[in-house]
């Protein structure tokens, strides 16, 4: 299933009915029963109407996905409003800051299978909602290893995304690819999908060799920039190698290490010598990778307690603050559990 999120800027109440209908139809298409689709309507109505009432608009991202063989709808709701000071208080049904019924956030939490929210005063708010096809399905407990979330959004006006990512896991460790096809649209998407296919098929364990595999198999495409990060549980190290301007950082507490990729274009020209950068692999680290659809001058330590948050909250907070809006945009955040 496609990793890409559909994106809508919501600055007018007239858009709410249209977006609610789109997500309702998507829910039915992937197998939601009418009652569950109606509950999804309530969640979407609350999210979007809150954007208008409290934040003078914002952005809604949504997609259908499959998790543990279950169909799900995922939604991010982003705004740059005044934010909330006391989240626990406003999560209570009946509380309102505008003399309305005040059942919004409480009902979202009750009707969804997972609801995460993060806010800072005068910064705004990011919310993440996961809706399974069945309301009573319990989320699986987080396993040790990599817990990740990814967001990919088309260049405005395009119907297809030229950015993409993929994760391979095994008993030995895991491998992560994030790529950005040159330009945007159909040709960029073709390049990144060929790279993902090569990545899936590669039997190599070194990131530099995985990139060489991709290079040979995407030569007939427009080409792409990409970074591969590999963890070997036994040796307890990250090995990272990339070509082109994918930004990669590994946070270890308050410190972070930035990986500098090689110059070049995979599929056209890559350096003869490619070496991996090695970083110790530890619990509680956070990996952030993103394309140049996001600005690079950010620091997670500028956001209060963000390092403790769900990986999707971290990804959406960085997306909200740094998306350029002039290209496809993708970001992947992995937390080591």
Oligomer: single chain
- Percentage beta strand: 25-35%
Query: Could you name the ranges where pLDDT drops below 50 across 5 or more consecutive residues?
Result: none
Number of strands: 15
Count of alpha and pi helical runs: 7
Structural class: alpha+beta
Biggest sheet: strands side by side, in what order? 4-5-3-2-1-6-15-14-11-12
Mean pLDDT: 93
Measured as a percent range, the helix fraction is 25-40%
- The CA-CA distance between the termini, in Å, is 26 Å
Report Rg: 20 Å
Please provide a brief summary of the model.
The protein is an alpha+beta fold. It is 26% helix and 33% strand.
Protein model, in words:
The chain is of the alpha+beta class and 337 residues long. Helices cover 26% and strands 33% of the residues. The chain contains 7 helices and 15 strands. α1 runs antiparallel to α2, α2 runs antiparallel to α4 and α5 packs across α6. The radius of gyration is 20 Å and the shape is globular. The model has no long low-confidence stretch (mean pLDDT 93).
